[in-house]
Each structure stands twice: as structure tokens, then as C-alpha cells.
């Protein structure tokens, strides 16, 4: 996978299901409606290294170091809180601790990775990772105790090649209050060799984990990575992989 770059700073289906996922398109939403529906579902995800000093039986966090920034989006809720979809590499991992400690020269009694979500209203919440699949680069997380948030629906059809798609994200960590960034692109198709969806769309670091939306504002992809030499070639897990994971 040397031709791909991550953006942080296949399952086969039956012929019947494949037919359903490529149903003809009609009755597109206006771009204003797509944006309005998606903006309040967007979150920026920050991964921090929390550094603590321990005395006897208690530890106190004395410093936090920002490690990475990505994006995510609300996809529903369960009995414990609001559910978040993102890319697996956006959901901070414990193996970041050693590399970060080495890079920053940190000596501490306790260190841990903390993921935080910032909404478009600039409200901040701690998030917990429920599960992730590194191979498909998908993550499911939760904000415990938060309910009734606007959320996006996952589509049941793959866009036709050449259809317009949209992305609302926090590129480079930029998240203006009540005014997130939306870009428009083109769905190129699914590459059966690498098992990924290909989208022609301009994205930058921080867009990873954000939703790729069809003309009804439904999720048809999740920004995973871009080609290392071409900024406007974006890769996403296939819609089948997304449906199977979530």
C-alpha cells in the first residue's frame, strides 16, 4: 500500500444485494439541504496524550499533549449514549503512547490516550471506543450520556460512477462554529483489486473519518486516505464494508 497516505495531522455480497446497492438515482436533494442535514452531525476528534503524576494511591493529570486531529459523525444512539462513526486510525490507540513519550521526551508516572469530540457548536465531550477494524479502517465510538443528537443515515445503494458526492469535515482541524466546511466531489467507482471506493475530491489532513455523502445526504463512504502523489484521489472503505461494520 506504498502509494497511499493516511490523513491524520471486502466482503462479497450476493447478486441480489449488489443489485439493490446500485439502484437508479433520482430526486436529488439540494446542496443546501445536504449541508444543513449534515453539519450538526459532524464532530472533530482530537487525540490527546494525558500525562499524570501519581502520589500514593491517586494520580493527577498535569499536562495534555495533542497528538492528532480527525473527523467523525453521529450515526445514532444506544441505551448508553450517542454513537460515532470514524476511521480506525483517527480513534487513538495505546501504541501512540510510547512513540509520543519518546518524541516529546516525556517522563511521567502515568500516561494514557484520551479521545475528545468537538461538535459544530463547539461543545466538547470525552468519547470511548467501542470497536474498530484496522483492515477496513473503521471505528465505532460513543459519547456516554448524550442523547437525541442529529445523525446521518447510511445509504443502501452505491453511487453510480460520475455521481456527485459531498464531504463535511474539519480539515486540518478547522471547525468554525456553526459553519463547517463542505466540499463537493465525484464518485469514481469501486476498485476491486484494492477493495476500496475511489472518490475524486480535495481533502487534507483532519478530514479522515468524515462522511462522504450522496445526493440524498446519506453516507456512502468514510474518508480513509488519499493517494500520496495526488491530493484529489481519496479512498474509502466500500459501502458493503461500512454496512457490515456498523
Instruction: Characterize the quaternary organization of these chains.
Output: single chain
Q: Between the first and last Cα atoms, what is the distance in angstroms?
A: 25 Å
Order of helices and strands: EHHEEEHEEEEEEEEEEH
Rg calc: 18 Å
Q: What is the number of helical segments per DSSP (H or I, 4+ residues)? A: 4
Overview of the structural elements:
The chain is globular. The longest helix is centred in the N-terminal third of the chain and has 9 residues, at 31-39. The protein has helices at residues 15-21, 31-39, 96-104, 239-245, and strands spanning 4-6, 42-55, 58-78, 81-86, 110-119, 124-133, 138-144, 164-169, 181-191, 196-200, 211-213, 219-222, 225-227, 233-237. It is mainly beta and 246 residues long. Residues 8-25 have low confidence and may be disordered. The strands form two sheets. It has an eight-stranded antiparallel β-sheet. A six-stranded antiparallel barrel has the order 2-3-4-7-6-5.
